[in-house]
Structure to design on (305 residues):
């Protein structure tokens, strides 16, 4: 898990014999928090993710996240710069040093547009979707699925290229379920690790005999596309109101009538949001559709916020 890490004086830490200065807190979740740090040797900014590990199972999960970063090397998947496990009394913390993206997440971009009373241009949507799909394809090619794709887990670089992050929920793409016990285990895992308003229908009520595959990510991709088009996820409001998302996702999504986007983009959205996974395209097929809509997705002069 990397070389020993120590917390030093004046708000610095040392990872792999390199010192980093704490700048400020970027965010925090239930069992982790992220700080902006500056490398004292190279002068670059990084995001330092610190995962609280209360027991051996927590440490195993943190190591899994490290392994997933190391498994997939692709421009559209967040790389890991360094890592270490540090003891905090009887507990441990996993420290993941990651690149810092000052433009933030796709969700922050969507929110900024919504506050201005405007929506994302179709050309930009296609560009971002293309990059997300390339990242997913890289993950799927390794036999894994992301399982928690959502706008807050997509970073945007200076060229508007999306970068997938938060790889802790990644697991085997193909999950064969052969008993009610296995079905319940998968269902419970999904309830803990897959964000409810972006979770595929087949993960809410897992059948006793079935195969879950990487097209759970395609459903989530559809929710991300919807969010870019309409300023919020298709099931965000249902969740916020306390209504049943599990029930809502069993019905085919009704795409709001609009004149902003082409019928082809609406058809793509509908294909991604097919309730039955067998009816959804694989990511390679989605890429083909995107390239037909926009033959040259690279080098786009995007409109910045």
């Amino acid at each position: 898990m990397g070389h020993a890490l120590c917390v030093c004086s004046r708000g610095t830490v040392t990872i792999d014999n390199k010192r980093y200065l704490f700048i400020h807190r970027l965010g925090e979740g239930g069992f982790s928090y992220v700080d902006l740090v500056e490398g004292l040797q190279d002068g670059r900014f990084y995001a330092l993710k610190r995962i609280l590990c209360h027991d051996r199972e927590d440490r195993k999960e943190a190591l899994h996240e490290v392994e997933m970063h190391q498994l997939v090397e692709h421009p559209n998947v967040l790389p890991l710069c360094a890592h270490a496990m540090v003891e905090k009394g009887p507990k441990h913390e996993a420290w993941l040093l990651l690149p810092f993206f000052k433009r933030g997440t796709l969700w922050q971009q969507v929110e900024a547009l919504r506050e201005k009373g405007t929506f994302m241009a179709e050309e930009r949507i296609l560009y971002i979707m293309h990059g997300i799909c390339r990242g997913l394809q890289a993950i799927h090619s390794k036999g894994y699925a992301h399982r928690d794709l959502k706008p807050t887990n997509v970073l945007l670089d200076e060229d508007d290229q999306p970068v997938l992050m938060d790889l802790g929920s990644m697991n085997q793409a193909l999950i064969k379920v052969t008993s009610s016990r296995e079905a319940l285990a998968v269902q419970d895992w999904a309830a803990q690790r897959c964000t409810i308003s972006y979770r595929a229908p087949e993960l809410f009520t897992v059948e006793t005999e079935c195969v879950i595959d990487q097209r759970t990510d395609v459903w989530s991709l559809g929710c991300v596309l919807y969010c870019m088009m309409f300023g919020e996820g298709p099931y965000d409001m249902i969740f916020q109101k306390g209504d049943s998302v599990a029930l809502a996702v069993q019905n085919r999504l009704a795409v709001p009538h609009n004149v902003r986007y082409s019928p082809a983009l609406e058809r793509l959205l509908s294909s991604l949001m097919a309730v039955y996974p067998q009816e959804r395209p694989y990511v390679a097929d989605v890429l083909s559709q995107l390239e037909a809509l926009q033959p040259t997705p690279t080098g786009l002069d995007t409109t910045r916020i």
Q: What stands out?
A: The chain is about 35% helix and 20% strand. The mean pLDDT is 92. The CA atoms of residues 183 and 206 lie 5 Å apart. The first strand starts at residue 6 and ends at 8.
